[in-house]
Amino acid sequence: MLFAMDGHSRAGLSGFGDHDMARRIGSDIGGTFTDLVMVSDDGQDFAIAKVLTTPTEPDRAVVDGVDQLLSANDVDASAVAHLVHGTTLFTNALIERKGAKTALVTTKGFRDAVEIAREHRFDMYDLRMERPAPIAPRHLRFEVDERVMADGSVHLPLDEASVAALVPQLAAAGVEAIAVCLLHAYRNDAHERRVGEILAAALPSVAISLSCDVNPEIREYERASTTLCNVYVRKIADVYLHRLERRLQDRGLSGPLYVMQSQGGVCDIDTATALPIRLVESGPAAGALAAAAYGDLIGAKNLLSFDMGGTTAKACLILDGEPLIAPDFEVDRTYRFTKGSGLPVKVPVIEMIEIGAGGGSLVTLDAMGRLAVGPQSAGAEPGPVSYGRGGTQPTVTDADLTLGYLDPTYFLGGTMALDTEAAAAAVDATVAKPLGLDTLAAAHGVHRLVNENMASAARIHAVERGTDVAKLPLFAFGGAGPVHAYGVASILGSPSVVYPLGAGVMSAAGLLSAPLSFDFVRTMPAGLDAMDWDAVNAALSTMEADGAKILSRATDPSTLTFTRSADVRYRRQGYELRVPAPSGTLTEADRPAIQAAFEDAYRTIYGQTPSNVELDVISWRVVVSGPRPGLSLPKAAVSGTDAATAQKGSRRIYVGSSMVDVPVYDRYALGEGATFQGPAIVEERESTVVIAGPGKARVDAHANLIVNLR
User: Fold this and answer.
1) What global pTM score does this model have?
2) Bigger pLDDT: 278 or 47?
3) 3-state secondary structure 266-325
4) What is the tens place of the pLDDT at every residue in 193-217?
5) What residues pair up with 410 in beta bridges, in sequence order?
6) Following DSSP, what letter does each residue of 56-68 receive, concatenated?
């Protein structure tokens, strides 16, 4: 399903006004649907495609969607300047353990560090607590004789014979990938690089990743885990991304293929295939960027991004126009939403919270007979019961359809019919009858449970960061986001909900607002009061030069910007806070600014700062970025403030505790300034806005539907 939007006509298959203008395409692969957005170079004209994901060959859905976009809008492939891609393929490979057969080479005596992990237990009272198995099992973890100290000095030179002795063992084991992580290689990488050279010469067909390239940062377990995860999926990344690139080129797209990174920047194929671990949250990051870009354009610098698709729902705080960035991430959690139960990945990611509830999430009763939603999903195959593709277990979409929130004849603009009777029957058999409820009450219980879970997680997420979520507007998108956003906002006490036009494909649009970007880190522990500023300046200059070299492959080096930060903590604390660092040549005169930035950040999170405690800087960071691409919002397609002209009918939906007849509005016929009162339904091709209660709705100049709840 696809359509075009411009400032002169209603959404339809009308195409772009200027066929000679360059285009940009964003493609985001979800668990159920693959979304694509094509934007003109001036950011004014949009075209959208939404196709079912092809799980066994995900790039096929991307190419099919591109074909549809170009054909329906009469755009030649040569007009596409570039395509930006977001995917969770590499995260899924880690979770499903479908990567390469991987070995670890480490310093003698540290073979088991990745299995010992941390002293901390995420559940100290669970005697049967499980952890994810290390990427490299014990029989594929090898040691070499060498020892570098924490200050970078060499205590024991590298015994190259011990490295050479590993070659026949690695070959006999059929190893396909090797992670090299030697003790303190972040301070002195000479031994680690030499080990890599020896192994690469002897085993040329084996992928090798060095921790000094992947994560040159303190903390042994996290560094080894990140390096292992990176090399584990390198072959998958190389095959998948180059195959997608070839298929696009075969279609006539000669522009470069870029890939979204977890921290919100994009990179070229060479970087992505060398460091695929930086792509673990590639897809979800794009949605947060879209929320930030749209919030900036409509004057809402602070908001809560709410993205609900087919598999999960995610929330992200946008503060001062930027999504929050976390220093690390976890994959393959044994207990999906329990922090500490997964493999640590030490790469920066856009920070968001997630619950396993999307439109395709399965509805069940747990062992105690309680209603449960997710984390298992029906996905695209077979999909919800109402899709008629073989699904037998009810999903959130089936419950929403039963409540009247979705029009069975207008799903994806009418190109995909839904079976209401089958959905209601599945909800009745799985939930209603076992719990002694009627079908509507059971379906509403599913809808309400998803809303409550998301609101609870978002509230805790905000409180932990010193933010009152009740003061933030909710920015709702994703295929299922607009269906549930009103309920989530009501629970949170949000002042308003913003529904952008084309909400169902906002993550794909977010891909087109991301700049080329790459980040660097150097661990150099020292007291802030005794800093070797010459060494710090040398490290910062090196990182900035390395970043300029990488990004200059794809953009004009004169357009690059450099953003510095420092990881700072009170002396003898275990973890750091990341704070801004000044530009230029740093001197002792910059110490008060760094200290003040840290104390402000510490006070925001913990409410107070201790006195007379010295500060330590553990690591210095640099983010190198290209210019941010322009992404203007489409103007309201029609003018006129009379919402009545946009009403295309009415429908009975579940409001409060009964079915109520409410107006149904055509989203594309609502002009700037149009207002109406809830409850109501507003339909567009990729999503449905459900206002299941009171609220004043209005359409702004950018076609955003804003519902005020206060």
Assistant:
1) 0.82
2) 278
3) EECHHHHHHCHHHHCCHHHHHHHHHHHHHHHHCCCCCEEEEEECCCCEEEEEEECCEECE
4) 999 999 999 999 999 999 999 999 9
5) none
6) TSHHHHHHHHHHH
